[in-house]
Amino acid sequence: MKKDAEQNNGKRTFPFTEKGRQKESRSRFERLFHVIILSWKRDWRAWQLTRNKYVLPLLFLFFLAGWWFFFSSNWVATNDAYVTGNVIPVKAQTSGRVVEVLVESTQYVKKNQVLVRLDSLNQRVAFEGAKQNLAMAVRKVEDLFNKAKSLRNKIAAQKAILGRQRYDLGLYASGSKAGVVSVQDAIDAQWKVQEIESTIRQLEDELHSTESWIQKTTVWDNPIVLKAAVDLKNAYLALYRCQIVAPVAGYVARRSIQVGDEVTPDRLLMNIVPLDYYWVVANYRETELRKMKPGQPVKIRADIYGRRYLYHGVVEGLEPGSGTVFALLPPDNATGNYIHVVERVPVRIRLDPKELIQHPLRLGLSVVTKVNVSHKGSSVLKPITEIPANAKTSDYTSTYFSEELSGVDDLIKTIIEENRYPQSESKDTLSQDLETPPSVHPTN
């Protein structure tokens, strides 16, 4: 207002005049314009502060979302996973008292190495008795063959006598009619013929009874000898199994046997764990299995090594059911108190054997697995699970039990040959003897 007064040479301008009203209106407009400009500048500074406070975090969140969409969403991870493998039980196959324990827990044992020895006194006595029983059986069969030969010879002799006696009976009958021979002599001749016929029938019955034991057999395959051979094999096995051996190579775990313990068949003595073949079982939620297939690569970190080492694996296959299905008490959902629970399905993951050699693992160790589900893989119905060639011969095959009877066959042959007669009746027409004895394989 002062300015206006000075510009008007000190003359005061009143607002009710036209000129005054114009100046007043222009002054208000300028003040409003300045207020708007100042307000806009203030809002601009506040927006800049807000942008710095919220925009950058939002951009970071957008970046994380993009990274998850393109990278992280292709991986499915779980920490509900553990290392597992084969645990081979070592059990007794015969009864006895422990007299020697040769291994300790955590000790490495070789395949077919002796682990425990049992008291074998009773088994040795039974084995010696079985050998004698086999020898007696061979001699008995030889006696049967000789008896059959003797009976056939007697029958042949009696038939010859019978023929002569029948001829004499005809002469006596003719002489009796002619009055040359007395009637009593003819009757005596008739009785003699009947007596010889009765003797022949008795000898034939005895021959049939004897032949029933040896007919169509030899000493080598006669049931009496085979039964004694089976008993000898059982006694041999009982003695042989007093030494308990390792079916596979590995490390001893949980030895529970002590010297002096009385063991029975199928009692668990210890476990053997081979460390050359392990795998991982990861329990994934059912909602995470939509894209999971065999053949997809897996990243594995074991808690024992932390982030210092990364294992690489492959999905071999998915179990055909969730864990609850194979539980001791499967759930029964047909009840009124049903609660929906997200199930977990075990997924078998193969480990690299070379990495296991460099960084060994143990059964039951916890691991974290991440499966790359973006990999194509194969059909869920075609798992790629297979036993490695080295594990198939070392961990999944044991030749020890099939070799337990490897020495008893030769022993049986020796006993049979030593107890046969120098000229065996088994070469008779009733049996077909062999120039070389066949292998004896009686059924256990």
From TrEMBL:
Coiled-coil region: 134-161
GO biological process: transmembrane transport
Cellular compartment(s): Cell envelope
Stretches for region Disordered: 1-20, 419-444
Annotated keywords: Coiled coil, Membrane, Transmembrane, Transmembrane helix
Domain Multidrug export protein EmrA/FarA alpha-helical hairpin residue range list: 123-241
Compositional bias of kind Basic and acidic residues: 419-430
GO cellular component: cell envelope
Keyword Membrane: yes
Record-annotated membrane-spanning stretches: 54-71
SUPFAM superfamilies cross-referenced by the UniProt entry: HlyD-like secretion proteins
Protein name as annotated: Membrane fusion component of tripartite multidrug resistance system
Main location: other
InterPro entries xref list: EmrA/FarA_HH, MFP
Pfam families found in the cross-reference section: HH_EMRA
